[in-house]
Amino acid sequence: MGWIHRPRLNKLLALFLVLGAALAAGCGRNDALPQSLMDPRGQVARMQIDLLNLSLYFAAGIGAIVTIVLIFVVLKFRARPEVKEVPKQIHGSTALEITWTLIPIVILIILGVPTVRTAFGTATPASGLDMKIVATGNQWWFGFQYPDQGNFVVGNEMVVPVNTKIEVELRSRDVIHSFWIPKLAGKMDMVPNRVNSMWIEAGETGMYYGQCAEFCGTQHAQMRFRVKVVSKEEFDGWAKRRQAGAVEPTDPVALKGKEVAMKTCAACHAIDGTTAKGVVGPNLSNVGERSTLAAGIIENTEENLKQWIRNPQAIKPGVKMASHPPAVVSDADLNALVKYLQGLK
Ligand code: CUA
Q1: Confidence (pLDDT) at 67
Q2: Which of 25, 34, 232, 268 has the least C-beta neighbours within 10 A?
Q3: How far is residue 307 from each of residues 130, 255, 303, 316, 326, measured CA to CA in Å?
Q4: What is the pairing mode between strands 177-181 and 206-212?
Q5: What distance in Å separates the CA atoms of residue 147 and residue 294, rounded to the nearest whole number?
Q6: Does residue 223's CB lie within 6 angstroms of at least one atom of ligand 1?
Q7: Is residue 8 helix, strand or coil?
Q8: CA atoms of 258 and 275, how far apart (whole Å)
Q9: How many Cα atoms are found within 13 Å in the side-chain-facing hemisphere of 72?
Q10: Ligand 1 close to Cβ of residue 212 (< 6 A)
Q11: Contact at 8 Å (CB) between 157 and 291?
């Protein structure tokens, strides 16, 4: 190592270590990051991250080799006062030209084959699909329809069975949205007057976070959803309950609440098995069992539901839902309405 000072080399190594540590600190698995594509829990997401990792490691390897060679050449062949003659010129070397044409071709083949395989694999699964869900984007919420289970519709919380290959048909009622569940699959656009299609398969039960990933208006960032992955038995039971329509209340307060709902909510929301058939807002047939309100932005609690009905603009400015001040819905009616809605499970 006569051509480089050892202290200088040590400094260089230290710099690389610090940079490397800073980079590595950004990685790591963390369940506190509910929307991390680095933490795949489904087959499609895994295929995608595998391809990303392959390209990343490959590119990092090439980058490292080029950097090392470059540093070596810069140091080894730097101008020295004692060397006066011009170095040997290699312009037009056929061997070099062929070498640096062949190397990129080989690199492209190594990266291209898995890329094409992943593109086709994530478009359609090798072994066929088990069921279908139609997901529709609306400003600013998601609707999920289950054609294989009798066509019922739920809002903002998609319930799916574990280890099941599900085709998700993507539609939009207004502008372009994008459907994204980072831990299960990459995003795909929901385009008006066009049907897109993707598939997902969750390998573990649990709650997964989804998010609209295409700017679609003021509340784009608040257009979220949940994917609840349950066992196949649990899903079948849930689908049966949904097919049966909304539960009929028995409690007198909740019955009064149903009356209020038919007057106040029915123009915009549907409640299966009742006269409420609106499609402007999410279907409320199972709103009581949803974990969140307002498309994933507030917890589904009695207090939050009351505030949401009273003044949705305060929680989600721009939302199409109207306000319901006490002059429109009295405190007693609001109590009854919330009791009825929370009983819809
Ligand atoms: Cu819908 Cu962004």
Answers
A1: 97
A2: 25
A3: 40, 21, 6, 11, 12
A4: antiparallel
A5: 25
A6: yes
A7: helix
A8: 11
A9: 7
A10: yes
A11: yes
Beta bridge partners of 133: 168
Dihedral (C-alpha) 131, 209, 32, 60: value to the nearest 10 degrees? 80
Binding site membership of 215 for ligand 1 (Cβ less than 6 Å): yes
Nearest CA to ligand 1 atom 1: 177
The total number of residues shown for the chain amounts to 345
Where do the DSSP E strands lie in the chain? 131-138, 141-146, 152-155, 157-161, 166-172, 177-181, 185-190, 196-200, 206-212, 224-230, 292-293, 298-299
The response to whether residue 181 sits with its C-beta less than 6 Å from ligand 1 reads no
Helix orientation angle between 43-76 and 94-123, rounded to the nearest 10 degrees: 160
Q: Check if 137 has its Cβ closer than 6 Å to any atom of ligand 1.
A: yes
* For residues 268-281, average pLDDT: 92
Q: How far is the CA of 311 from the centre of ligand 1 (A)?
A: 22
Say how many Å lie between the CA of residue 52 and the centre of ligand 1: 25
User: Quick one: what percent of the chain has pLDDT higher than 90?
Assistant: 76
CA 178 – ligand 1 centroid, Å:
6
The CA dihedral of 223, 226, 227, 228, to the nearest 10 degrees, is -160
Q: What is the pTM of this model?
A: 0.81
